[in-house]
Design brief:
Elements: H1 2-16, H2 21-43, H3 49-77, H4 83-102, E1 115-119, E2 122-126, H5 131-157, H6 162-183, H7 193-284, H8 290-318, E3 326-328, H9 330-345, E4 350-355, E5 361-363, H10 365-383, E6 393-401, E7 404-411, H11 442-451, E8 455-460, E9 465-472
Parallel strand pairs: 4-6
Antiparallel strand pairs: 1-2, 3-5, 6-7, 7-9, 8-9
Helix pairs in contact: 1-2, 1-7, 2-3, 2-7, 3-4, 3-5, 5-6, 6-7, 7-8, 9-10, 10-11
Length: 481
């Protein structure tokens, strides 16, 4: 029963984890011990000659299985690096099993009556072994002595579980020697392998392997806890890095936007500064023309008003209030901006419109007008840079779809370079083309649209580029303008 339980348990462990080959060989040893002990049970009492022969055959087959399994176990457990010995053991085991099945008379004297051998208090009927069988016992003892030698080396190296394995192998080998001497008739000692040697060997090997399993599970849990703590620590580090990166990106965006603001402010300031120099030159004249002086002062006031408007726009967009929120019709916003655009382009670009009544959006009509003005002015510059004979054209379209008010500004220019189409709304792209009196370019356009809860999409088609502004028709009241 010990052999059957050992075979079942270690066979199950091996099926669950195939790399654990040690359990496979211990399962083989357990099955071989069960076969050997079953054969021994057939030899007790008053067996018939046929039963005695079959019982001895099972014992021989079981002894061969035990030797084969133990040798393979030792190769993996103790690192037995003797290929010639292992291959020789394989060949010898196969030969003995074939003789045991096909020609048992070569291994036992079936022509003589079995002799009675005592196993503790139980008599066993055993056939006398032939000279060939007695000669084959010597290599088997050599194999097991090799196990003992390598187990002793493992003990000296301090390997876990090596000491109990060495003890069990020594006891088992001593019992095998004594039983062999009894079978040969050289001594009258009782047979003890089945009663003590095999159970001790199986329980020791099983105990060592189970100890290995428990130790591996403990190590797995310890490593799992360590890995979990490392994962938490690394996640905290990554979150801190992400926060620093986000802060760095924000600072970079602010810096780039500040550069764009400085560029936009410098233009009117330079204009004002030039006018002031001109005014100083007029003042140094003996009789300055009052109309020219008034004209220069008016231009200075206009330049300063543009600087003030830029600063006011930035302050409004930095606020989180909703003082300017009210229902706004995108089509009306476009119509209010068109006269200014047409006056600025002076007929150089043809402006086409297709304005349908739009569902109202909530926000600032003035800031949304700044969006339209920037996008249209950007499209005018793009349409005027085609480099061919086609007439520059800009088309404005408004419509409502699925609860969204949409403004589309398209031009027949060269389109947006593929490598820039995802970055044109970044602060770094608010450059000269959008800085000629139209605020701070597409970067601020995106900021205004986002503050109104909308989206910006840029794309190319067969005729040029188009930018679409999508605004929710009934946004939440908390959208900042």
């Amino acid at each position: 029963m010990v052999g059957v339980y050992t075979a079942c348990f270690h066979g199950w462990v091996y099926l669950q984890h195939r790399p654990a080959r040690e359990h496979l060989w211990v399962a083989l040893v357990g099955a071989a011990v069960a076969v050997l002990c079953f054969g021994g049970a057939m030899l007790s009492g008053q067996p018939t000659p046929q039963q005695a022969a079959l019982g001895l055959q099972l014992q021989i087959a079981g002894a061969v299985g035990v030797t084969f399994g133990l040798l393979r176990f030792g190769v993996r457990r103790f690192g037995i690096d003797l290929p010639l010995l292992v291959r020789g053991a394989d060949g010898l085991c196969i030969a003995i099993v074939l003789l045991d099945l096909l020609a048992p008379s070569w291994l036992m004297r079936l022509d003589r009556p079995p002799q009675i051998v005592q196993a503790l208090a139980e008599p066993f009927h055993l056939y006398e072994l032939t000279a060939l069988s007695q000669a084959l016992l010597l290599p088997f003892f050599v194999f097991h002595v090799v196990h003992v030698v390598f187990a002793d080396r493992a003990v000296r190296r301090g390997e876990p579980g090596a000491r109990p394995l060495l003890f069990a192998l020594v006891v088992w080998l001593a019992a095998a020697v004594l039983d062999s001497l009894t079978v040969f008739g050289w001594t009258s000692l009782p047979v003890v392998l089945s009663a003590g040697g095999y159970p001790l060997l199986l329980m020791t090997v099983s105990g060592v392997l189970v100890y290995d399993l428990v130790r591996a599970m403990d190590e797995h849990e310890r490593l799992g806890e360590r890995l979990q703590s490392l994962a938490h620590a690394r996640a905290d580090e990554l979150r801190a890095v992400d926060a620093r990166l986000a802060r760095g990106e924000q600072l970079a965006a602010i810096g780039t936007l500040a550069a764009g603001v400085a560029h936009e402010i410098n233009n009117p300031l330079a204009y004002v500064n030039a006018n002031l120099n001109h005014l100083q030159a007029l003042w140094q004249e003996k009789q300055p023309d009052p109309r020219e002086v008034e004209e220069v002062l008016a231009e200075c006031r206009e330049g300063l008003a543009r600087v003030s408007a830029i600063a006011a726009d930035l302050l409004r967009m930095a606020r989180h209030g909703a003082s300017e929120q009210r229902p706004v019709d995108l089509s009306e916003v476009v119509r209010s901006v068109l006269p200014m655009v047409e006056r600025e382009c002076e007929g150089r670009v043809r402006i086409e419109t297709s304005l349908a009544p739009c569902a109202p959006v909530r926000g600032s009509a003035r800031l949304l007008g700044q969006v339209v003005l920037n996008l249209v002015w950007n499209a005018i510059h793009a349409a005027g840079s085609t480099g061919d004979d086609s007439e520059p054209r800009v088309e404005l379209t408004t419509r409502t779809s699925d609860g969204t008010a949409e403004l589309c500004v398209a031009d027949n220019g060269p389109g947006i370079p593929a490598e820039l189409i995802e970055q044109i709304f970044d602060p770094a792209d608010a450059s000269r083309a959008l800085g000629q009196g139209t605020g701070l370019g597409l970067a601020l356009v995106r900021l205004i649209v986002q503050r109104h809860g909308g989206q910006l999409r840029a794309e190319n088609d067969a005729f040029g580029a188009r930018v679409r502004v999508l605004l929710p028709a009934r946004p939440a009241l908390g959208v900042a303008a």
